[in-house]
Amino acid sequence: MLRAHPEPATSLGRDPARHPDEDETADAYDLVGATLDAHGYEWEEISNWALPAHECRHNHVYWDHGDYVGFGSAAHSHHTVVGTGTCARPIATSISCRAVRVPRG
Q1: Which of 31, 36, 78, 84 would give a disulfide with 41, using CB separation of 3.0 to 4.6 Å?
Q2: What is the separation, in whole angstroms, between the first and last Cα of the chain?
Q3: Does 105 have pLDDT greater than 70?
């Protein structure tokens, strides 16, 4: 559950009467958290709860400094090099990804 943040250049942002009330939003967040806690969910991050053993593996790769490969012009990757510590290698990954041929079909 995330609070909507009205951007000034949008119709919502230009109409303060439509902005979410901060106190009501905080109360709703507290209610959601208490309800999920009561049903065995554990708080994982600002807007995520999960049952034990069903946590988001995707996020934990980042939080636990795991290795991952990013694809796309603004993506980045993380690769742990044994014996040299941890380094981010976006350029090397970008270059090596260009050489990969993916079969179509």
Answers
A1: 36
A2: 39
A3: no
Residue of 81, 82, 83, 84 whose CA lies nearest to 93: 81
Contact (CB, 8 A) for 77 and 88: yes
The two tokens of residue 60 are: 């934990």
Give 46-83 pLDDT, tens digit per residue.
888 999 999 888 888 888 888 888 888 888 888 776 54
Tokens read off for 72: 């796309």
Bridge partners of residue 80, in order along the sequence? 86
Cα dist. 70→8, 40, 66, 85, 93 in Å?
A: 32, 34, 13, 19, 8
Give the pLDDT band of residue 84 (cuts 50, 70, 90): very low
The pTM for the full model equals 0.55
Q: Which residues contact 2 (CB under 8 A, 6 or more apart)?
A: 46, 47
Three-state secondary structure call for residue 105: coil
Tokens at 7, concatenated: 């951007």
Could you count the other beta carbons within 10 Å of the beta carbon of residue 49?
19
